[in-house]
Amino acid sequence: YVLTQPPSVSVAPGETARITCGGNNIGNKNVHWYQQKPGQAPVLVIYYDSDRPSGIPERFSGSNSGNTATLTISRVEAGDEADYYCQVWDSSTDHVTFGGGTKLTVL
Amino acid sequence: EVQLVQSGAEVRKPGESLKISCKGSGYSFTTYWIGWVRQMPGKGLEWMGIIHPADSDTRYNPSFQGQVTISADKSISTAHLQWSSLKASDTAMYYCARPHSESSGYNAFDIWGQGTMVTVSS
To answer: Of A88, B2, B5, B119, which has the highest C-beta tally within 10 A?
Structure first.
């Protein structure tokens, strides 16, 4: 199962960043999102399409429908600059797949 | 505090064997699956496989089946990832991680180890 993410997204501070994750009928799957800053382990920011773990700001939200899942970061801050990865489990094959990652640059 | 602590960085030559570890604490180790994720230098995340420490039920990404062995020793709350014959292409950061729910090993990983850098070079 292939997940397609844009290699990069750029946004000015205070604006809204949208990072997409494309996959065949991904709307029928649970999508998770991770943030990874340089030299650090990934951090879960959204699970089950739109749930936020404790400690993750409300500025992070997620949606999933059709062939595209989206991670939305509102009021972007310099500290949000990182790589973001989507992840799904394909129950038909028992495979877990990560997207290729998107580098978010805060201008 | 729930945490996973991994063993330190390793440098090996091609053909050598290696076993790295991931020790869980702050929770019941036998209740949750443990997963392993590879990140090659400058590249993305790759799901390698999962193990349930209670009974060592293990599932592999087909891309890694036969290339590595995932194991667990519940008596010391530790999971392992091992290679019998390393290649230069095994050079990567390896993370262990725990799903946010014990119901499935395929759930999102909310607890991560700090990573173990493995360098294979002659």
So the answer is: A88
* For A97, nearest residue in chain B (alpha carbons): B47
Task: Name the H helices within chain B.
Answer: none
**Which residues of chain B lie closer than 8 angstroms to A87, CB-CB?**
45, 47, 108
pLDDT digits (tens, 9 = 90+) for A38-83: 999 999 999 999 999 999 999 999 999 999 999 999 999 999 999 9
Let me know: does B74 contact B57? Beta carbons within 8 Å: no
By DSSP bridging, strand B116-120 and strand B57-60 are: unpaired
User: CB of B61 within 8 A of CB of B48?
Assistant: yes
Using DSSP's 3-state secondary structure scheme, residue B89 falls into helix
CB contact, 8 Å: A53 with chain B?
Answer: yes
Place of tokens 């949606």: A63
| Shortest distance, CA B44 to any CA of chain A (angstroms) | 6
Residues of B in contact with A36 (CB under 8 A): 45
